[in-house]
Amino acid sequence: MEPISKRIILTTIIIALAILFSGMHVSADVKIDLKTAAFAGLKEKVNNLIKDGANVNEKDKSGETALMAAALMGNTEIVITLLEHGADVNAQDMNGETALMAAAFTGRADIVNILLVSGAHVNAKDLKMETALVEAAYGGHVTIINTLVDSGALMNEKGSSKGTPALMAAARVGNIETVRTLLDRGAEVNATDSHEATAVMAAAYGGHAETAKLLIEHGADVNARNCMGLTPLIYASYGGHSLTVDTLLDHGARVNDKNANGETALLAAAVRGHAETVETLLAHSADMNARDSKGMTAITAAVSLGHDETIDVLVARGAKIKSNTAQGSPEMLASLVCDD
Fold it and tell me: How large is the average pLDDT for residues 308-323?
């Protein structure tokens, strides 16, 4: 489950640059390329460059075109101008991203419509196998999601080429309205990515209890396992998300299920020193004596890693500290890998 910090950073940068360029005046003598002019929203400069023979489909070192830049920044008039002068609506940069994906992620509904009418491929994929619909789901743009679905966007792909389902993207960021919209539009609640992870796992990993609850109420398998044997409960425990752990347990999560390394939710929480989560799991009859594939228990992990508060919780529940407690417990989740 990849963090989305890069997306947040990108959005912040875009907003900052939009503010910077909004009051910018560039004289006709200043040397500036078409992509930069399109990014900055400099309509007159764009028009002049095109009149002077600028290639509307020229790419920079990252493979981006002026159309992608204008779509990303929401410069609608420039998008129209570029398309009228032959801009390739389906051009892809080095990451496989298109103008449609950029507009979908940043919430440019008017530009999404323009690009679709101009022939943008609604199901084009980037190198991560993600589509414009997934980008809109990450961004929480319900109007764009509906537009894309109405235009034929696929939500429930099958086979080896599938990427992140849009429902999983929305669950990962905890946008409950986006999740609800996708479910209403027919997203399969138990659809998996290439690692067999599901939306409820993504919600659990992010600590989004209400989103997880909504998914379960719509039929999500609360005990689903991905290719590493990780369950929603283990994901939530790994992150120390006690409310989400409680929600999953209240909706039928099996407290003592193990991952591929034999690790339970309790051990996952103990390794990370999440004392409150450990207490929650114990209150739901987690097995304190369960061992992983290397013989580690919750108390040996807590002792070897120096998690004093977690040790106190376990000892209060009857755990015994032995003199030969193992040292240097590895973080088992980090060592898990999927088979090719």
Answer: 89
